[in-house]
Fold Diacylglycerol kinase family protein.
Amino acid sequence: MPKHFVFIVNEAAGGGNVRKLWPKIVEQLNQLNIEYRCTKTNFVGDAIQITKRILSAANDRLNNELVIVATGGDGTLHEVLNGCKEFYESHPSPTQVPIAFLPIGSGNDFARALKISDNWKTAIQQILSVKSPKPLVVGKYNNLNEGSTGYFINNFGIGLDATIVHNANHSIIKRNPILGKFSYIFAALNVIRTFKPVKTEVYYGENNQFVREFTKGFLITVTNIPYFGGGVNIVPTASPSKNSLDLVLIEKPSVRQIIIFIINLLAKRHLKLKFVTHLSKKSFTIITDGNRFGQIDGEESSSQSFNIKFETSTYSFWVN
Ligand SMILES: Nc1ncnc2c1ncn2[C@@H]1O[C@H](COP(=O)(O)OP(=O)(O)OP(=O)(O)O)[C@@H](O)[C@H]1O
């Protein structure tokens, strides 16, 4: 069946690079003679509202033809996913409009995990070569303190990586089209020195009957894919095709341990280190004692003491 593609375009992604690229992409789409339309986002969170409007305007026939193409970075894809999930939670349907991804943001970790090309022309060809939607696992979080829920495609971090995201997002480097790619590295070098660890409890098992306590939680990351922070291979075995989420937790390391960790990270052996905790589960709850930043798919959440239940969920994606 011919597909109708709706591009939700975040021109602010990729340090503003998308604004320059988009006219070229439009030219290419016209040359390819495919059926498409596009909507540009105007502010943070707009892609959630746009997605919900698209889905509520589609009827049953269109539902089978539509593909929503998140066009930007991981934050744009995150918003499109949450728009879809919110819509179908209030309008249950046997079929879901699938999400495709045209990765032209700064980090593009989801694309890296799914081997979607970072060359936009190739990525468009990849989208056009898909024959049918594929269900993929996404993370669901339930913030038990706030009573809010949401979904993530990549990772939910508390502490170190979240503070790095906070600092990177507020640095002028992030808005630079060339240096933007390195904004996380610059921020990391500073935060690793200054970050204050946080007391953390992790509950898991059928009825949360197992608990692990960490007095000096430093890096606390729940991930659905191998990468975080723009290409760091934090859990090489993580996959959105596996019905589990991976937790990596490191307590405040010494300088020696940081060096050992980096060397082992490069050799993909870091999860075997004694001072690194790695759990792969369908569900767990993390409680932290002390206000720290959180990051969800690279977008920061406010500084707070977290009490979060994580579980797996699924959504339909237009990927090979
Ligand atoms: N018109 C807009 N102006 C400013 N910000 C916007 C606009 N539309 C969307 N946004 C916000 O831009 C932020 C960054 O988008 P996105 O994450 O897609 O790009 P990126 O940061 O370059 O990529 P990545 O997350 O892969 O590093 C998101 O929080 C999104 O809500």
Residues 16 and 302 are 24 Å apart (CA to CA). DSSP finds nine helices and 17 strands in the chain. The longest strand covers residues 210-223. The pocket of adenosine-5'-triphosphate is lined by residues 10-14, 41-46, 72-76, 79, 105-108, 298-299 (CB under 6 Å).
